Amino acid sequence: MWIDTHCHLDATEFDPDRAEVVARAHAAGVQRIVIPAVSVDNFETVRALAHQQGHAYALGIHPLYVMGAAEEDLAALDRALTAHRDDPRLVAIGEIGLDFFVKSLDVQRQQWFYLEQLKLARRHGLPVILHVRRSADQLLAGLRRIGLTTGGIGHAFNGSRQQADAFLALGFKLGFGGTLTFDRSLQIRRLAAELPAEALVTETDAPDIPPQWLYRTFEERAAGASMRNEPGELPRIGADLAALRGWTVEEAARITRANALQALPRLAALAAAGL
Q1: Domain 31-273 -> CATH class
Q2: CA 43 to CA 29: how far, in whole Å?
Q3: Are 96 and 52 a contacting pair, CB within 8 Å?
C-alpha cells in the first residue's frame, strides 16, 4: 500500500469530483494521503477533508503565500496547533519553506515566516513538510539555527547529492513524485536511484507536478487539455521509482511507506489505531 505524502486535495481543481478522485486513489492502492495547508484560509478545509476522507493533514503557511500573510497568521497557526494537538490526523507543520525561483517574492519576509514556523514546530514537537525550490542551503541553515530535531520531509526535492545528505543527517526524508518519470530529469532520477533506500518517500503534489504520461504541450493546454495530477497516479510513479532502484513495485511501496511512517510518526499511530 502506498502513502502520498503530499497532495493538495483541497485544491479547486478537485471540486467537481473530489470523492471520485479519492476513490480512484484507494482503488489504485493508495492507503493514505497527507494534505498540507498553504495559508490560514485553508487550515479548517484541510482538517475537515482529512477527517471526512480518512487521511491526514498538516498546517502551515506556504512561502508563495507569505506576501499576503500577517504576523497574526502565525498566531493563528499557533492557536490551531494548540487546539488540535490531540488530533491524530494532524501529522506535521507544512507546507512551509523558501522559494527562490519566483523572483517577485520578498526573500527576507520568506525567511522570517520560515524561521518563525520552525520555532512553532519545535514548540509543538511536530515534523515539518518543506517547500524546497532553489533554496536547499538556506533551508538547511534555518534548521540548524533553530535546532529543529523533529525532522520531516523535503518535498519535491531537486537539490544536489551533498544537500540531500545534509537533509538526511538532520533526520529528513526526501519526496519524489511525477518529475522522476521524465527521462530528461537527470538529476532527480539520479538521486532517486542512488540515495539510501531509507531516504525516499513518494508524493504526487496533485493537482500539480503531473507525471510524464499526463504532460501536455503548451499548444495542447491552450486548446483546453488538462494536466491535472491525482493521488491515484502514485503507484505508477512508484513503479518508475522501482525500475530506477531495481526493486519490485511491492518493495518500493513497502520501503517508501515505512519511510513515510518514520518521517511522520503520527501516520504510524494512525495505522496502529486502524484509523
Answers
A1: alpha beta
A2: 27
A3: no
Query: Model pTM greater than 0.90?
Result: yes
Residue type, 67: M
H helix runs in the chain, sequence order: 18-28, 43-53, 71-83, 107-124, 136-146, 161-169, 186-194, 218-222, 234-245, 249-263, 265-273
Which three three-digit cell numbers place residue 80? 490551531
Tens digit of pLDDT for each residue in 243-261? 999 999 999 999 999 999 9
Where are the chain's structural domains?
31-273
Mean pLDDT per 10-residue interval, the chain, length 275 residues = 97 97 98 98 97 97 94 97 97 97 89 98 98 96 97 97 98 98 96 98 98 92 90 98 98 98 95 81
The C-alpha atoms of residue 39 and residue 86 are separated, in whole angstroms, by 21
Q: Closest Cα partner for 30 from 198, 202, 154, 181?
A: 202
List b or e across 171-201, with b for residues whose CB sees 16 or more CB atoms inside 10 angstroms: ebbbbbbbbbbeeebeebbebbeebeeebbb
- Facing residues of 220 across strands? none
